[in-house]
Write a structure and sequence with these properties.
about 300 residues, alpha/beta, Rossmann fold, Alpha-Beta Plaits, six-stranded mixed beta sheet, elongated
Length: about 300
C-alpha cells in the first residue's frame, strides 16, 4: 500500500538565506503515529507547514493521498487537520460555535452529534457555552484540537499539542490520540516532551538543523541506540579500579562507593557474568545490584549533540 504522505528531497530556503529544510525524505503510513522530535529551529514547524500547504517549498515534492500539496491544494488540505502552536480563536465566540464554524469552513455538512462527541472526548462539553476569552490556556488548546477534529480529517498534525498543559490533561489528550488512531487517523506530532513520544508513538523521527537524522520504529530505536547501565553498590569503597577490570567498560562513582558498567548489545551484555566472576576473584564484594536502560530522551540528546 502506498504511504499516505510521501516527502521527497524537500528543501526550504527563506528570503534571508536561512535553510530551514535540507533535502528531507520521509514516508508516513496510514494509521500510524509519528513523533517528530527536535530542538527549537530544527525545521519541525516548517515541515508541517509545507505538508499542510501553508508554506511553499523551495524544492522537492510532497504527496498526500497521492496528490501534490502544491498542485492539488484543495484535495490535500481537505484530508488534513492541523493544530498549530499558536492559540488563534475569536475570543468573543462560544466554544460550540467556534468548533461548529470550523466544520463548516471545511465544507462539511452540519453534524451536531459529531461536534458533541468531539467536545466530550476533549472534556469540553461542560464549557460548550463559554466564550473563548473565559477559558484557560489549557482549555483553549483543547478547543484548537476540537476545531481540527470537527471536519473528520484522515491526517492530523499536532504541533506541540500539550505545550502549557498540565500533566493530567496531557494524558487525557494521549488517550484521545490513541482513539483516533484506532479509527484509522494518521497522526504526526511534534513535541518537546520526550515522554510523549515514548508513550504513544509508533515511530520516532529526529530532526535537527533542517535535516532528518533518522526515522525508526520506537522499539527498534531504543534497542539499537539505547545503552544500558549496571550499577553495583560496593560493600567497601574503592580508591581505584584494579588492573583486572581494565578490559571492561567500568567506572567508579559516588566516591568509590559504586561501580558502573555501561553496555550495549548482546555481546557486551553477555560479559556481565564474566565481570561478576572477575569481581569475586578480586575479592570485591557488593551489597546491591541494579540496571537502567537509557530513555528516548538520552538517545535524542546524543543524536542532536552529534550534529550540533
Amino acid at each position: 500500500m502506498a504511504p499516505i504522505i510521501s516527502i521527497r528531497n524537500l528543501t526550504k530556503t527563506y528570503g534571508n538565506g536561512f535553510k530551514a529544510l535540507k533535502g528531507v525524505n520521509l514516508e508516513i503510513e496510514e494509521g500510524e503515529i509519528l513523533a517528530l522530535l527536535g530542538p527549537n529551529g530544527a525545521g519541525k514547524t516548517t515541515l508541517i507547514s509545507i505538508v499542510c500547504g501553508l508554506v511553499n517549498p523551495s524544492g522537492g515534492q510532497v504527496l498526500v493521498g497521492g496528490h501534490d500539496v502544491v498542485k492539488d491544494f484543495r484535495q490535500t488540505r481537505a484530508m488534513i487537520g492541523l493544530v498549530p502552536q499558536e492559540l488563534t480563536t475569536d475570543q468573543f465566540e462560544t466554544v460550540w460555535n467556534t468548533v461548529t464554524f470550523s466544520r463548516g469552513v471545511h465544507g462539511k455538512k452540519e453534524d451536531p452529534a459529531h461536534i458533541e462527541r468531539v467536545l466530550k472526548d476533549l472534556s469540553l462539553w461542560e464549557k460548550r457555552d463559554n466564550m473563548m476569552r473565559e477559558l484557560s490556556g489549557g482549555m483553549k488548546r483543547r478547543v484548537m484540537i476540537a476545531k481540527a477534529l470537527s471536519y473528520e480529517p484522515r491526517i492530523l498534525f499536532l504541533d506541540e499539542p500539550t505545550a502549557g498543559v498540565d500533566v493530567n490533561l496531557r494524558r487525557e489528550m494521549w488517550q484521545v490520540v490513541e482513539r483516533l488512531r484506532q479509527n484509522g487517523v494518521t497522526i504526526i506530532l511534534t513535541t518537546h516532551y520526550i515522554e510523549e513520544a515514548e508513550e504513544i508513538a509508533d515511530r520516532v523521527g529526529v530532526i535537527n538543523g533542517g535535516e532528518l537524522l533518522l526515522v525508526e520504529a520506537k522499539t527498534a530505536l531504543m534497542k539499537k541506540l539505547g545503552r544500558k547501565e549496571l550499577r553495583l553498590e560496593l560493600t567497601k569503597p574503592m580508591a581505584a579500579l584494579p588492573d583486572a577490570l581494565g578490559t571492561y567498560n567500568v567506572a567508579l562513582a559516588e566516591n568509590g562507593g559504586a561501580l558502573i558498567y555501561e553496555y550495549q548489545g548482546e555481546a557486551e551484555q553477555g560479559r556481565i557474568a564474566t565481570l561478576l566472576g572477575t569481581l569475586a576473584a578480586q575479592g570485591i564484594e557488593y551489597r546491591d545490584l541494579s540496571t537502567r536502560q537509557s530513555s528516548l530522551e538520552d538517545i535524542f540528546v546524543e543524536l542532536v549533540g552529534q550534529r550540533a
